[in-house]
Amino acid sequence: MSAEHHFRYVATDRRVREDRRFVAGKGKFIADIALPSTKHVALVTCPHANARIVSVDKSRALKMPGVHYVLDGHELAAATLPLMTGLDTPNVPRRPLAVDVARYSGEWVVAVVADTRAQAEDAAEEVDIEYEALPFVLDAEEALEPGSPLVHQAHGSNVLLDKTFVWGEVDKDFAASPRKLSLRVKWGRSSTVPIETFGVVASWDPWRDMLDVYASIQMPRYADQIGIALQIPVTSVRVHYDVDVGGSYGVKRGIKHTVLAGYLARRLGFPVRLIEDRLENMRGGDAHGPERLFDVDVAYDDAGIVRSMKMRALENVGAYAGRSPFQLGKPVGAIVGPYKINSVQYRAIAVVTNKTTQEAVRGFGQAPTNLAIERIMDEVANVLGLDTIEIRRRNMIKHDEFPYLIPSGTTYDSGNYEAVFAKVLAGGAYEDLKAERDALRANGILAGIGVSACLEPSGGNATFEALLNPAITTSTFMDSCRISVDGMGFITATMHTTSSGQGHETLVGTVIGEQLQVDPEAIRVTRPDSLNSLPSGTPVGSRMAIMLGGAAFHAANKLKAKLLAIGAHDLGIPLARAVYEQGNVHDRDTPSHKRTWADLVQIAFRNYHRMPPDMEPGLSVSHVYQVPNGSTLPTAGGRVQMYPCFSFEFHLMLLSIDPMLGRPEILRYRLGHDCGTQINPKIVRGMTMGGIAHGIGAALYEEFAYNDEGQLIAQTFMDYLLPSSHEVPAVDIFDHETPSPYTVLGQKGSGESGYLGAPAAIANAINDALRPLGISTNRLPIKVSRLGDMIAAAQAKKGN
Amino acid sequence: MKAAPFEYSRAADIDEACALLAADESARVIAGGQTLVAMMAMRLARPTRLIDINRIAALSYIRAEGDAVAIGATTRQCVVERDALVAAKLPLLARAIPWIGHAATRARGTIGGSLANADPAAELPLIAVTLDATLSFREGGKTSDIKARNFFMGAMVTALPAGALLTGVRFPVWSGKVGVGFHEVNARRSDFAFVSAAAQVELDGGGACKRIALAVGAVTDFPVRLESAEAELTGSTLDDAKVLAAMTQALTGVEALADLHASAEYRKRVAIKLAARAVADARDHALGKKHAH
Amino acid sequence: MHAIMRWVRNMRIELDINGEVRELDVEPRTTLLDCLRDNLALTGAHAGCEHGVCGACTVLFDGVAVRSCLMFAVQAQGSAVRTIEGVTPGPGEMSVIQDAFCETHGMQCGYCTPAMVLVAHALLANNPEPTREEIVEAISGNICRCTGYAQIVEAIALAAERMRGANAPAELRK
């Protein structure tokens, strides 16, 4: 740790309380929820990339053992509203089951309900569907062309969004700059693919008009969207937040699964369970991540100072769009990375193709954008013969320039990038890596050093919504915490969303314990259901440390204030003389004159005659916390304060490539990380290492590959390759803490750390390794075979 | 991903297994199940009956048989991995086994299962072809032998007759100054290989190659013995340049597989190099030199 | 269209689960994983892929870590199956290994965790002093999407160190 801490519990090495239940296998995951009489769903999926559904014959399926119902898209569409989308695209409706046309291979067409999952699968095979195959398009650039097949006829084109922003005098800056560089960078289609698939259990109680929903969910406005789609009051939807989610990293927004299961539960009168199997998940779970093509131009000078940037980001959204096109908008809040680029032109284009639909993925578009920025920085350095770290030093925002306003209207709250660099490079680390690289090269091994310097926007206010769709005027982004001390003096705090491994219960206990000066382990943290909850924006946008931490902090302070008021009144002293200490209140002038925690509880609960006049009895408080700094809407020119806080990461790695095999190996990895105050260091480290592993996967192994027939050919874990322990090297992490001035404890987010910068650093390292051969690659993933073929071709050219 | 329904029988002996197989053409045997159960979960395999042969003691053995080592079909891969006789007499097999899947799959997977499955990228078919192993199978009360070179016919296709039960495999043992080399390349450590190469050499007193067996796997539908290279290199000192030339020549006409994981060019090009590395390792091993692998 | 589904009778089997013999009535096609979860309410083994790659379904089978999704329950008769529930010493009580995982925070979402703990048990039963490479190899058949593995490897190393210091504690024999 770098900062001097005066904390008692925050920033100390504490265990994560959630871990206890997990090591015993006593988590409560969706598949562990067993309501009586639950029936199971299996899906019938479209085998074609694009097809008209000519007919559906359910008759054989209905005769299969255990079958209760077979649901098609028409029936579901007649009874429900389309799923919410972010952009204003009424001619691109999205529904759980295809209606008339299925638009990607794997899209759900029919749902079968049976006593067991196995019986539902048996019956699903017996549903006879006649299709008429239609022309299809898979490539985003082809989808833009005038003659392209249309994914949605009624929409008239394949373009969902095409918006250009110009922040600053871009043309002038380009004209004035002596040098320009263009680069095309492709982020391949991958995703965070949790080991647990999405699942939901829905149960309808007609006597209470209540739909109980249990789900492996990570999604804002989940209950709202269920109610809207099913056309029932949101107060008839009760989402249970105490379901443990087996990993999500953004993607578990199974609203189509939930509307489907919810409809069936209401229609059929028994609980309905839909848990994707892995094939359903990969092909039709709609949880693919960005597939983004960047065309970047920079204008710079002979010293390597980048003055202006033009970026066109073309996103292949898949066949439908929920929230995913907004992943083009979030990076606007850090569009220049950590650099002092003066002006920016940004064009965001989202197109539909006949591929699986995307969902929000960790970073919400920031990791692909960082890849593009960091690649072009390296290419500028390459042209000028500048060191890869030096180019960044020259362009970086200096520590005394914060808060720093970037051209797109966002202010970076704080940072000290030089200090983070210094820690990573301490002791001659960079020189050692270069020496090692050179020694490898001398032995005929391709070797390269790669860096990336990236921001992690955190705090999660979604003003990219308003930016990309001016009809949206949302500027409220909140989270909440309620604290109750009961009549026996025990403390319970509530949080109002699900978690998927971030340790939020520990976060809440730690922050409240800190403020109340009581052992966090003594604080019970619960998750009431959605009808008993205060508002929560849920864990998106790396926001929970800031927002839930903030809500808990303020709630605890309210409780402390109440205790002080009760104590002062009962002690007969002015409030200014009352001192709170570890749950007790004493007279500053006469410390022995005090009221203990037990006394205060007694007064609050049972001795109203001793309470300050007109004070509410009991000891319950709550706080609903608005995001600090980020409550404004975009200007007409598209400038906006997006996320309030910016963590920073600096990756430095040495990578080798066996020239014959084309297989890369990360040999050394140093990471500098600054997320302000770390409320729980174990959690932060875990997030970072996990993010790095995700990044390694996206850079080298993972791809949702399609063949020319529009079939997803990587649909199992045999072909979609997840990094194992062999593929993730040891990483030396160097922490720095530049607190945020906006947050209650100086904390920033760390939920996306590692993932946002690792792919860029790996791409840079590989390119450094390839440079002596005169070749480069700007397309992820960089797989062994492609790398091997590139190297072989270059060597043949050189006459090797 | 639940399998389609099937009936389940446990065969007490080989002939019962064969009788059950003969009675139902959609019946299949299950031993380790590490491939079969996954295929059934995806409903790519839909046997009407599974005949569990795990309890047939007569199918599980490792023993010396003259100048060969015989291994029963249901012998677990992890057992072969740890076996002292295999380590001593079949060093090439011992070298390749740890590359099969993961420890958890080798705990259940069997020698026979992998051979009968005949995945183009699998290690055991490659070793069997390299060492000229003989596979035995039983059908209708009769035991027959078939050479590995004739057993593997296509991707997941073997000469095992429908209704026959693979009972075991015999690997010839080489004596003298023997060395082995084995290489495979994949994306992640334990994936199916893109290319694999196995070599075994016997050197004479002067260090010249008396005998060499060499094959590549994962490049084509089934492992390929590089017989022209073997002929070319026999009698030579196996110097690197000559070896490389022989590999290049031997693989010239080969049409390599292309898929999501590796291009045909990659497979062919790397096969030449990996085969050369395998021969070099085998040579050095036989010469008693230490080498990295 | 597929061959007409035949109705297959359940089979009666006896399984040795965590040291106790349980009588069960299952379809032949029920995997050991589904049998543990649905028939025996032992929900610590998790389904991640159902095709034998992710390892979240790992159980100990005669002491060896295997994928329970790649075995039909009917095949398990005659062998000893041990699940996470069977290595937990008692209600609310953690083994040395489980405690080490909590000490290093060798998990986040918890979905792969029971499998990792069982792999650790199997490893340390046979190799009380594993190197870092041996630990990495031992868990390489289990995918974690949360942690990047570092804190898991540290948990197992810590557990090994503590167990060596405690002279082969009793729960290894469980």
Can you walk me through this structure?
The complex is a heterotrimer of chains A (800), B (293) and C (174). Chain A is of the alpha+beta class and 800 residues long. Chain A folds into three domains: 19-23 and 478-626, Aldehyde oxidase/xanthine dehydrogenase, molybdopterin binding domain (Aldehyde Oxidoreductase, domain 4, 2-Layer Sandwich); 33-134 and 198-275, Aldehyde Oxidoreductase, domain 3, CATH 3.90.1170; 292-463 and 633-797, 2-Layer Sandwich (Aldehyde Oxidoreductase, domain 4), CATH 3.30.365.10. Chain A is built from 20 helices and 28 strands. In chain A, α7 packs across α8 (255-268), α10 (366-384) packs across α11 and α10 runs parallel beside α19 (758-770). Chain A is globular, with a radius of gyration of 28 Å. The mean pLDDT of chain A is 97. Chain B is α+β, with helices and mostly antiparallel strands. Chain B has helices spanning 14-23, 36-41, 77-82, 84-89, 91-96, 103-106, 111-117, 123-130, 148-151, 227-233, 240-250, 264-287, and strands at 7-10, 27-30, 49-52, 62-65, 68-72, 134-139, 142-147, 152-154, 157-158, 165-172, 177-185, 195-203, 209-217, 224-225. In chain B, the strands form four sheets. Chain B has a five-stranded antiparallel beta sheet with strand order 4-5-10-6-7. The radius of gyration of chain B is 19 Å and the shape is globular. Chain C has 174 residues and is α+β, with helices and mostly antiparallel strands. Chain C has two domains: 11-86, Beta-grasp domain (Ubiquitin-like (UB roll), Roll), CATH 3.10.20.30; 96-173, Orthogonal Bundle (DNA polymerase, domain 1). Helix content of chain C is 32%, strand content 14%. Chain C is built from five helices and five strands. Chain C has a five-stranded mixed beta sheet, sandwiched between helices. The radius of gyration of chain C is 17 Å and the shape is globular. The model of chain C has no long low-confidence stretch (mean pLDDT 94). Chains in contact: A-B, A-C, B-C. Chains A and C meet through α1 and α18 of A and α2, α3, α4 and α5 of C.
